[in-house]
Amino acid sequence: MRTVTIDPITRIEGHLRVEIQVEDGMIVGARCSGALYRGLEEILRGRHPLDAQRITTRICGVCPLAHSTAAALCLDDVLGISPPRNGQLLRNLIYGANFLHNHILHFYHLALPDYLPADALPGALSPGTDEDRRFSREEARKLADHYLQALDMRRKAQELVALFGGKMPHDMSIVPGGVTYRPDPGDVAAFRFRLKEIVDFIRGVYIPDLLLLARRYPDYFELGGVGKLLTFGCFPLDGDRLFPAGAVLDGEPEPLDPAEIREHTARSWYRGNGAQHPREEEAEPDPDKAEAYSWIKAPRYRGEACEVGPAARAAIALVRGPGGFREAAGELLTEAETGPERLSSTMGRHLARGMEALFIARAMEGWLAELDPAAPVAVAFTLPREARGQGLTDAPRGALGHWVEVAGGVIARYQVIAPTTWNASPRDEKGTPGPIERALQGTRVSGDGLLEAGRIVRSFDPCLACAIQ
Amino acid sequence: MRGEPLAVVWFQGAGCTGCSVSLMNAAYPDIKDLLLDEVVPGKSITLVFHATLMGPTGRPALEVLDRFPGEAAGDYLLVVEGALPTRHPNFGRVGERPMAERAAGLARGAVGVVAMGTCASYGGIPAGAPNPTGCVGIGELLRREGIDVPVVNVPGCPPHPRWFVETVAHILLHGPPRPEELDGVGRLRAVYPDLVHDNCPRRADFDVGRFAPAFGAEGCLYELGCKGPYTDANCPYHEWNGGVNWCIKAGHPCIGCCEPEFPDYPSPLFRKAGAEEATGAFRRSG
Question: How many CA atoms lie within 13 A of A445 on its CB side?
């Protein structure tokens, strides 16, 4: 048996180290280590509650809107308010644009180089290896062109966020009670045309490229599966969420019960074993803890290590989601010659991102049409001295929760559990591996495993700045 | 006439990748232009290491990083994104070594260092009180280590892509900035020329005392906590993301994200700034 250390895992957000044990051409064990601790939860303690709105946004520069949205929901809960309908539409439009940015960036710039020829891209961007490359020369050339075109598309998606969200990264518009920006009719037009261009790109370029990848690498529908899935749902409107919340633990979707979340720290660099609900959690860093190997904690739902992200959203939405999603997703699964049971796999995750990108973009067209530039965008509020709040949403990468306790008018406790905290978690005290660790285990590899492990890990779109704040 | 491109090593410490994403939002020149074309006539850069974008992973990626400084000493520009934790080696590691140690080692042979963002410039968000990991900016780290390399700060959370492009264009044309080209907090004077407040489109509201009482309302945002009167940045006339919007246009108070004290001084972010800031007496770059 040999141990291969992959550090740094590039083309993800942040600092991740993965160690795999390879025996007889198979990965028999894996350990994921988050390699950076900043202590944002500590930094938030004692600050004015509204500061959390802008400081938590800065947990991550790739998906700031995820934290902006969760913080706003959490503070809305503290204040006992919710945005006016117009404010909610704007929040959804801003957040939806962040999803589009994320998925285009992830597919073309983070994941695709794993499948392109060694010298397909300019300079350091090129993958530098020709191992297991299956595209024809013509296909590879076209995909490399699309890589460059996607650089423009993701920039335009950021402009889409900024149109109503102030700026990107780190939006400056979502606040408790709604948003700060009142768009004028010109902004609605500017938004519509950028959105249209991005929808055309998703439909005409991204989805066909995705299907081409799936056709060339169908074996990756069999690799990197997890099976247990969790989603908090996202995009609330009129009392419903576009993507419903839920979990799949034994094959059947079940409703979400947030009281069943615990964060474990047995193998993480914090004192003790944790196992607390984030509402009560006290986690003091302990960088010298001998039995630990990661700064990521190990969140569990009903004791299970659950995969979160597009596959989980799709699995639940295919059963309990809107008809429009079920139809579109069904079509794409058929075209890719696969089924919903393969969503939790390396290729299934890519496919799930593509299907929801188009679905969200279409939902955004609907929200934009309902926007009323003359209607209020926010409600006023008065901060209580003592309160607790919870904000749950799905982020592009999966289930995200913010929990706050306000005491004496300031933040007494702020806890965040982000999607990659779930996906890249280490073992808990029972020895249950985290989802990525489990996804790697049992994978047949050709060489040292770098290639297969890289493809599997990247299919989760890890974001380490989110995983450990 | 194209000279040898300037190699750029982009090193990420305790950050959020927001500065990289911001650079990818550059327009005219955009990121493709920066990577593939000349930045200024006859001068270009070549990105040799950037963990978020580069093709190789694991050992092959680390081997690229480990080539520097080596024989490349004096021939590359180091860009640092994120702060550097100093309290314990385990708070941040890259390729099995502490981040701060790697950053200092890379800086040692660089022709100059660009501190990209408020974290790399002054510590920023992770250095917010109580600064649990002892985070510092790259300039402070190099002072502590006694490493004498020119450092130029490009603060902002994140910085406007234009500020980075202007700084790099300056370096390509004139070399790393000389001390007299920098202001008191290490920024190129030309890039951070004046206060947000001086050019704010809501300045007329401030002058007549017409203040927005709540989010989403018309008027100057001063009462809602705007730190524009204390923040050096040209956001009002460059605006953000291809000029589609920016914080104050979006009705959000400026939170002073370019300033060395961020996020501690301007906190509470939504509390009205003091009279000293409001009159511009806090101005440091003038």
Answer: 27
| Neighboring chain A residues of B216 at a CB cutoff of 8 Å | 178-182, 376-378
Q: Where are the alpha helices (DSSP H) in A37-84?
A: 40-44, 51-57, 64-79
**Helices (H), ranges, A321-373:** 323-335, 346-370
Helix orientation angle between A346-370 and A450-459, rounded to the nearest 10 degrees: 30
Predicted local distance difference test score (pLDDT) of residue B273: 77
pLDDT (tens digit, 9 = 90+) per residue, A430-444? Answer: 999 999 999 999 999
CA distance A211 to chain B (A): 22
Q: Which fold has domain A2-467?
A: Cytochrome-c3 Hydrogenase; chain B (1.10.645)
Q: What is the CATH number of domain B6-181?
A: 3.40.50.700
Cβ atoms of B133 and B91 closer than 8 Å: yes
Measured at the CA of A32, the angle between CA A28 and CA A36, to 5 degrees, comes to: 165
Phi, psi of A112 (to 5 degrees): -55, -40
CATH of domain B193-279: 4.10.480.10
Total residue length of chain B: 286
Does ipTM exceed 0.90? yes
Considering the entire predicted model, what is its pTM?
Answer: 0.97
Q: Where are the domains of chain A?
A: 2-467
Nearest CA to A201 out of A126, A137, A159, A151 is that of: A151
Q: Does A378 touch chain B (CB under 8 A)?
A: yes
Nearest to A162 among B133, B216, B241 (CB): B241
Q: What residue segments make up the domains of chain B, in order of their start?
A: 6-181, 193-279
Give dist(CA B229, CA B240) in Å, integer.
19
Q: Would you place residue B192 in the very low, low, confident or very high pLDDT band (cuts 50, 70, 90)?
A: very high
Contact A175, B252 (CB under 8 A): yes
Q: How confident is the model at residue A223 (pLDDT cuts 50, 70, 90)?
A: very high
Asked if the C-beta of B243 comes within 8 angstroms of chain A's C-beta atoms, the answer is no
Q: Do domains B6-181 and B193-279 have the same CATH topology?
A: no
Task: State which residue of chain A sits closest to B248, comparing Cα positions.
Answer: A166
Query: Per the CB < 8 Å rule, is A162 touching B240?
Result: yes
CA angle B236, B237, B242 (to 5 degrees): 100
pLDDT of res. A291: 97
- CB-based contacts of A368, cutoff 8 Å, min separation 6: A93, A188, A191, A192, A195
Rg (CA), chain A: 21
Residue pair A378/A179 in contact by the 8 Å Cβ criterion: yes
Q: Do A8 and B94 lie within an 8 Å CB cutoff?
A: yes
Nearest Cα residue to A152 out of A105, A98, A95:
A105
